[in-house]
Amino acid sequence: MAGGSAIRGSRVGAGPMGEAERGESAPRIQVAYFCANEHVVKPSFATSDTSEIPDEWDCPRCGLPAGRDPYQPPSPGRSEPYKTHLAYVKERRTDEEGEALLEEALAALRARRGEA
């Protein structure tokens, strides 16, 4: 067999191989964000509308919020402790309502069992 495969070195479904085929990319600006753990992240944004650049960004290393001021990074958000289902129910119902619902459920259970 003389010669080789014309598609050697490329994979099936590969797109165009250069900047000329893709077109020009939009002008970009890098913005530095600083978190409380002294991490720095610099995402790129299009320069066409700088009003849409956020004031805070989540740090990809630790997950804390990061701001633009390196000397005053935003404080971490306060996370709520885990609540059980019972805690959520107690927020919605008073003790008296809970007792009434319990009595109603017990009465229905007794009726199904044939107890009086």
Topology readout:
Blueprint (H helix, E strand, L loop, with lengths): L18 H4 L5 E3 L2 E3 L4 E2 L2 E3 L9 E3 L6 E3 L17 H8 L2 H19 L3
Antiparallel strand pairs: 1-4, 2-3, 2-6, 5-6
Structural class: alpha+beta
- Helical content stands at 25-40%
Mean pLDDT: 84
Q: Please name the CATH architecture of the domain at 26-67.
A: Single Sheet
Number of strands: 6
Sheet with most strands: strand arrangement: 3-2-6-5
What integer value in Å does the Rg equal? 30 Å
The poorly predicted ranges are none
**Gross geometry:** elongated
Strand content: 5-15%
The end-to-end span amounts to 94 Å
Helix count equals 3
CATH topology of the domain at 26-67: Rubrerythrin, domain 2
Largest sheet: 4 strands, antiparallel
- Give the ordered list of helices and strands: HEEEEEEHH
Instruction: Return the CATH class of the domain at 26-67.
Output: Mainly Beta
